């Protein structure tokens, strides 16, 4: 692995570059491993679903306070219906407006009382407010409090420097004392207007970005991965191989610009085999598959663009082998039935599309 930082401002040379070269990589997936992956995906799905309404979840057990759990169910369902309709009542708008001012003012004052701590996690009033808010609102309001406090400290430091320069004039005549930094923050209307403008704040505005030029075509980071040979196998049992995908010359690259992100994949050759025979094989040994995805390209007025190119290949339809591969991804009683069916359907669709486009290519040759 190589990592370097280039201090030149040439747009063709990246500020940082990392390159990874691998000779031989083999991945094996058994039925037990596939079942564990589905379990993990199912757990993540359930966790993300619970996380949306975690601020409504009561801290008591179901037996001790069933009434609070019924309220929790009602609030979760009503919140989901409101988000689906995209409408909020006027009372809710007023409620969130009051909570926003109270939350940001309190959180910023707690941060200012101890500038060294990055987060406030020991205040009961903040914890009670968090239970009434969605996690996205909590993150946004805390980010606003951090940003406002940062600007407030910079403004205070600037005023101190200006007053220090004029201290020779005020010496002997009395000088106005500074406000205690631990004093609670009380925002004026102008300060709230300033906070409203900060909503468009981006994470790379904290000064940690590597960008040294405002040009959109300045290449910041490049990550390249080269694999000379890689293989993926589906195992049914200890030694039985259902499918073996072997690839030669796999190159992946990621290029990061200030706004633009470019992801590229290039494959030299590939071969898909089964115990019953060869299923697919590329006709060329170089650039058999090429794909480039660009997010916010700076040379076109689109949100994203994608270019895909596939060279001719040879395909053999072996029904028994394809049925065994599809059966490998079928439902299992230990995992979510919905996730297993979606995965099996996706595999079948990909196989059908692969055979369809290959037959079209062969008809034009």
UniProtKB/TrEMBL annotation:
Query: Where in this chain does the record put each Chorein N-terminal domain?
Result: 2-332
Where do transmembrane segments lie in this chain?
none
Q: Which UniProt keywords apply?
A: Transport
Q: Which domain of life is it from?
A: Eukaryota
Pfam families assigned: VPS13_N
- Protein's GO biological process: protein retention in Golgi apparatus; protein targeting to vacuole
Please give the name of this protein: Chorein N-terminal domain-containing protein
Record organism: Gossypium trilobum
Q: What is the lineage of its organism?
A: Eukaryota, Viridiplantae, Streptophyta, Embryophyta, Tracheophyta
